[in-house]
Specification:
- The complex is a heterodimer.
- Chain A folds into two domains: 32 residues; 214 residues, MetI-like fold (Orthogonal Bundle).
- In chain A, 84% of the residues lie in helices and 0% in strands.
- By secondary structure, chain A is mostly helical.
- Chain B starts with a strand and ends with a helix.
- Chain B is globular, with a radius of gyration of 18 Å.
- By secondary structure, chain B is α/β, with parallel strands linked by helices.
- Chain B has a domain of 128 residues: P-loop containing nucleotide triphosphate hydrolases (Rossmann fold).
- In chain B, the strands form two sheets. Chain B has a six-stranded mixed sheet with strand order 6-7-8-3-9-10, sandwiched between helices. In chain B, strands 2-1-4-5 form a four-stranded antiparallel sheet, covered by helices on one side.
- Chain B has eight helices and ten strands.
- Classes of the chains: A mainly alpha, B alpha/beta.
- The interface between A and B is medium-sized, with 22 and 32 residues.
- The structure holds adenosine-5'-diphosphate (ADP) and magnesium ion.
- The site of adenosine-5'-diphosphate has 12 residues of chain B, from strand 2 and helix 1.
């Protein structure tokens, strides 16, 4: 990459973020916005530093519940996606149910999960899982369904079984779809974990923010938001990098057209 | 010559019972081993369906269909197919794409892992023979449309099938590339003595390449004419400008009807 391009790719968002904080700080000082409504970035970062120990502690909880939910969603989504993409009957049967399930706001499920599993990390993991598996299923199934019928004929005429065709064509073909959906799923899992923490939990960034809000420690609430933003970006960046690493051919193919 | 494929009043339909769409009606043809036959006809008349039928991908509704004297009951395994779209796997190189059938058919399937280098060599040689030396390690997106189609034909040939089935293989190519590929296909067939079924709606292509041209009627497809092309082989592209060639093309054209 050219240095000019690099400067635009990394410099521009960095400059924009810094600019945003500067404007935010200026607005808070100029209009003397009360701390309990909108703390200035300097207050937020001060809180971030002061409460670093509990913040780090709770971040780890949020992070691991997110990742645990995401991992379950990945395995489950992959298996269900292959099953749905494999059989037209399964597709016809399961797909409407999945769409129906997916349209339930997951916040509404959290109380039920708490009822069953009590306060703690399990409802957070399950919410992260429930909210994030759907895009994986849909993408894997779509990837399998895009196998060209003519290529299937070429292989079937040689006596290939359905499993052969899946292994040689369908599954590799659905790789880019699968990895693409991971980006979406990790973000959703993160949202799910935090939502569950704010509804009822005893740990995690969501819970930390809830407690801070209850005691009017508004800078900590905003410090929590910043931590969430940073974690969200990190998780997304990691899955995006994994995607690029494993499905380079799909990106190259696009670049060639 | 030995008879390889025989269809005796074969019909075929898609779907069942009342909703069935009849695609082919009472087709009778006989193809000798090593024969190059072409099937032409209006779009939707059942040419591709005839191919599916002979390859064993779709069962007949009535009549008898035999290959090498045995009734066809399922995929033949002795066929190689290529279509208008090359359908190469984008994550594999040209040589790896050509190897794909060997990962399916026995005995290659079980030997492939141990003798991968030898098999890759075989794929490369085949690609060389159709003018793709130097492109064997390229990915499909690095190949032109004509090169992709050559690769696709190699993929159809790698397991040394008895019947090569081509469904409008050159339909998406420009006129010059198409004529180059005619010559490639002509040479491949002369060398390997494989039986070729070519589905096309390019009458010049059919007459230039085939020994026999079958003309089908619009749906449900019937054979309305069997036409032997007695132009001497090996044929050169110049033959397409001669009177006998043009007479045959003209005759076929009138059979298909003008719109
Ligand atoms: N899978 C299918 N299901 C139902 N009808 C089909 C199917 N494939 C082809 N047909 C019908 O059968 C007829 C012949 O199709 P096809 O063999 O593809 O024609 P051609 O290759 O000559 O253009 C067409 O009318 C088409 O609509
Ligand atoms: Mg067709």
């Amino acid at each position: 990459m050219e240095s000019r391009e690099l400067a635009i790719k990394f410099g521009a968002p960095a400059a924009f973020t810094v600019g945003l904080f500067v404007v935010w700080e200026a607005v808070c000082r100029l209009f003397e916005v009360p701390l309990t409504i909108l703390p200035a970035p300097s207050d937020v970062f001060a809180a971030l530093w002061q409460y670093r120990a509990p913040i780090v502690d709770n971040s780890f909880v949020t992070l691991w519940t997110t990742l645990a939910g995401f991992l379950i969603a990945t395995v489950f989504g992959l298996v269900l996606g292959i099953a749905v993409g494999w059989h037209r009957a399964l597709y016809a049967g399961i797909y409407p149910v999945l769409v129906g399930f997916n349209s339930i706001p997951k916040v509404a499920v959290v109380p039920v999960l708490i009822l069953w599993f009590g306060f703690g990390e399990i409802p957070a993991i399950l919410t992260a899982f429930l909210i994030s598996f759907f895009p994986i299923v849909v993408n894997v199934a779509t990837g399998l369904a895009t196998t060209e019928p003519e290529l299937e004929d070429v292989l079937r005429a040689l006596g290939a079984s359905k499993l052969d065709i899946m292994r040689k064509v369908g599954i590799p073909r659905s790789f880019p779809y699968f990895f693409g959906s991971l980006k979406v799923a990790i973000t959703l899992a993160f949202v799910g974990a935090v939502v569950s923490e704010t509804v009822g939990s005893n740990k995690g960034i969501g819970k930390l923010m809830l407690d801070a809000q209850a005691s009017f420690q508004v800078p900590i609430v905003f410090a929590g938001l910043i931590v969430l933003a940073v974690l969200g970006i990190l998780l997304y960046a990691i899955t995006a990098a994994v995607e690029k690493r494993f499905t380079g051919w799909a990106f190259r193919g696009q670049a060639a057209h | 010559m030995d008879e390889l494929i025989r269809l005796d009043r074969v019909s075929m339909a898609y779907g069942r019972a009342e909703q069935a769409v009849k695609a082919i009606e009472e087709v009778s043809i006989s193809v000798a081993a090593g024969e190059f036959f072409a099937v032409v006809g209006p779009s939707g008349c059942g040419k591709s369906s005839l191919m599916k039928l002979i390859s064993g991908l779709h069962p007949p509704l009535g009549g008898t269909l035999t290959v090498e004297g045995r009734p066809v009951t399922g995929p033949l395994k002795k066929v190689g197919m290529a279509f208008q779209n090359a359908n190469l796997l984008p994550w594999r190189t040209a040589a790896q794409n050509v190897l794909l059938p060997l990962e399916i058919v026995q005995p290659h399937r079980s030997r492939l892992r141990a003798e991968r280098a030898a098999y890759l060599d075989r794929a490369r040689k085949l690609l060389d023979s159709v003018g793709l030396a130097g492109f064997t390690e390229k990915f499909p997106w690095q190949l032109s449309g004509g090169m992709q189609q050559r690769t696709s034909i190699c993929r159809a040939l790698i397991h040394e099938p008895e019947i090569l089935m081509l469904d409008e293989p050159f339909g998406a190519l420009d006129a010059f590339t198409r004529e180059e590929l005619w010559c490639t296909l002509r040479d491949v067939q002369a060398r390997q003595k494989v039986t070729v079924m070519l589905v096309t709606h390019d009458l010049r292509e059919a007459v230039f390449l085939a020994d026999t041209v079958y003309v089908m009627s619009s749906r449900p497809g019937r054979i309305v004419k069997r036409c032997e092309v007695n132009l001497p082989r090996p044929r050169d592209l110049d033959v397409t400008y001669t009177q006998p060639f043009q007479d045959i093309v003209h005759e076929l054209r009138t059979l298909i009807g003008r719109h």
